[in-house]
Amino acid sequence: DWTSKCAFDYFPNSQRVYYFGNARRRNVTGGESTFGLPVSSYRDIAFYRSQPNIAFVGDSNVFRTSNLSATTPAWTTISTFNKRIAALHVSPSDSNRVYAITNDQFIYVSTNAMSASPTFTAYALPFATNNSAGIVSVKGNPNVLYAIMNTRIYKSINNGATWTNVSYNLPSVNYLDLITDDFY
Q1: What tens digit of pLDDT does each residue of 143-153 get?
Q2: Residue 179: which of 150, 142, 137 has the closest Cα?
Q3: Which of 42, 104, 128, 140 places its Cα 20 to 30 Å from the Cα of 87?
Q4: Could you give the strand order of the β-sheet that contains 141-149, starting from the edge strand earlier in sequence?
């Protein structure tokens, strides 16, 4: 019964869980360790399914590693937002596409996140993100995004530049997460 926010990586038969609140990873069968992050906690972690050694972590900036399986992975800071990141996502079809939603109603989009000097483009979001946020992209079309913005759900068809409210008749509650079916 885990109450801490956590995530599992995509290594085959992975038994490692990553805890957000203390920046530690633990083997389900026992043993816990830090994993080299330059921050003591983080808001979100995103793994790239096709290359399990690639991961991104967001706190007030985005950090990247390409050797997650190492005892102490090497992390590189790839952003300079200096804002609380509320949600982070890497496209399931392109490790260069990374999306970060900050709690001040912006989304930062990188289409070259694996390059030596990644860049992010900032877009204003149409609704507040101070309580909860989440972001997913569609594997078959990485320009299509869905985002949670507190009590609403929005869709973008142009990589985050503009958004359409698709909440329709959903209840007005703070949503926690979105998922997409990568195999549909």
Answers
A1: 999 999 999 99
A2: 137
A3: 140
A4: 133-138, 141-149, 152-156, 164-165
